[in-house]
Structure prediction request, 292 residues.
Amino acid sequence: METARHDAFVVHTVKAAEPAAGPARRPEAAPLIQDEETAAKRRSRRIALGRLAVAVMIFVVWELFTRYGWLDKYYWSSPSAILRTTWTQMTQGTLLRDIAYTSGSTIIGFITGTLFGSLLGLSFWWSKSYAGISEPYLIILNALPKLALAPVLVILLGIGFFSKVALAFSMTVVVSALSAYSGVKSVDPDMEKLMYSLGAKRHQVFVKVVVPWSMPWMISSLRINIALALAGAIVGEFIASSQGVGRMIMYAGTILDINLVWVGVVVLSLLSMLMYWGVVLLERWLSKGFVK
Prediction:
């Protein structure tokens, strides 16, 4: 019995695996997994530092070129002279009041023009006949050089604050209306039919479908509108005004004060950047609230 059990098993000898010839292979490094949010923050920090470095380099080169005579100070002034003139105008002049005047007319014109234009474009959804009749006139108004009508508006409304607001309004209202109308035309008709089939009223379809659907088109026009509104306000001040940064630039040009002209140019550049940044924040807020 023991002999039969022993013969039933076959024992095989297993040799250990021999190492591969050649140099020893190192284990491959595991791929580095980097957090996308951390990478985005680092990239944003690099971009911000790069922008700051470029701005500093521009002003340093500008200052050096004017000091060594490579640029004519009479025409190009210099950053140091502009800073001195800016401080003088802020402490002894009316620079702060002029900035507030220009900013106020621009922001009011931007807000009213954007709101009215967006409502006008959304209203085209209620009637295709009304939209078809109005569309060519909107296109004509958009192609019309509205700044050429600035003298007419100033004469009609006077040289006060309201005429600058009206110019900023006229520059933004048509763009907003066309953007909103583009959103209205892109609304999915199947979505509207689905809402009607579920028993929704017409005004409910407008509020729940048309407005949210058109919101990205309306938001996309904000950055364009703020620049147009500022241009309208400045042109109104160029024509006739008692206050404003545009009025200051025109006055400096008539008395050949180049430093003061450059102060106005730099102030307008900084003002446009701040307004643009504010509009970017507004876009983000609107996108979170309406665009899913």
Notes: The longest helix spans residues 258-290. The two ends are 81 Å apart (CA to CA).
